[in-house]
Amino acid sequence: MKPSLTAVPRAVWVLGFVSLFMDLSSEIIHALLPLFLTTTLGVSVAVVGAIDGVAEATASITKVFSGYISDRIGKRRPLILIGYGLAALTKPLFALAGSAPVVLGARFADRIGKGLRGAPRDALVADVTPPEIRGKAFGLRQSLDTVGAFAGPLLAIGLMFLFANDIRSVFWFAIIPAAIAVLLVVIGVEDAPAAGADTEVRPPIRFADLKRLTRPFWETTGIGVVFTLARFSEAFLILRASAEGLPLALAPLVLVVMNIVYALGAYPAGKLSDRIAPRALLAGGMICLILADLALAFLSGVAGAFVGIALWGAHLALTQGLLAKLVADNSPPDLRGSAYGLFNLATGVTLLFASLIAGLVWDGFGASNTFVAGAGFALVALLLLCIPRGLGDARR
Known about the structure:
The structure is a single chain. This protein is mostly helical. The protein has helices at residues 10-30, 33-40, 45-73, 77-96, 100-128, 134-162, 167-173, 175-188, 207-212, 215-230, 235-243, 253-273, 278-298, 301-329, 336-365, 367-385. The two termini are 16 Å apart.
């Protein structure tokens, strides 16, 4: 009998709702932050790209350490709690920021929190979920996460009207859902039972451990890197829609539309990944990204921008949960946190360079050429995906 939705462990549901509330908080801020930086603080698009890139790279570097620490101590929950707690503490800094360096500092601390929780959280999902429904579990958690990611910008729109376009007042409101997320971790998240009686404390990850990470894991990481090079920060989507005439108060609609598509597609894509080889889903996701970039480059007006934004969300739905599943499938259970850390380090550093390049191209050659370059990178990624590899293509 096929596992039903109710077969997904309780811990996955709780972690999904934790992600929902923290994303609700974060996206209230992130939906307005690019325009806050460029209009209120007067910085260039290149600086926006740099801030986003540095922030995401910070999160990814932190995930390496949080991943192997959680493997070493045999516990995921403490790092998950610290990560969400730190992220909640950074929210007031955005409302208080009077310059770009303060925003960078807030983003830096917020992303350290994300890095601390990310790899242990994904490892805990894998720890408590049977392999035959792992794609479903990751898809469910990603869907709940993404519900928060579109509800946050939607709430930001209402708050912008309520506070007469006072962005700082909207930022203050983001503290509330962040506090709820931390409370859910405190009362609802527990570590998975120990796999055995061996309580020996392992040293941090060693070169011998790296050798235990199989070729399919490194191929998954390589594909994740190339995909990320083609997918720079979503801040550029907000700036593009704004440049096409989207009013300031409606700027969060960009993330609303993107994340509605993402949320609706993530769970079905996760279920499908349990039944078919991953290459077809990854290729479909990359085709969506190519079409998204081309739409953002060549379709004029707000409607044209939103066609590209919706396709961007479809790309995320098809690829992000699947890549998380492939990391779990292709790493030993006792190194799973470390594997997520290494994967996120590689993709996060790549996102830094992708966002820096996108910002420089935008300032130097215009918005359209930024997305043309993105389409070019995506096409290269699609061609590389067509080269025969292991990649865990066998159905699991």
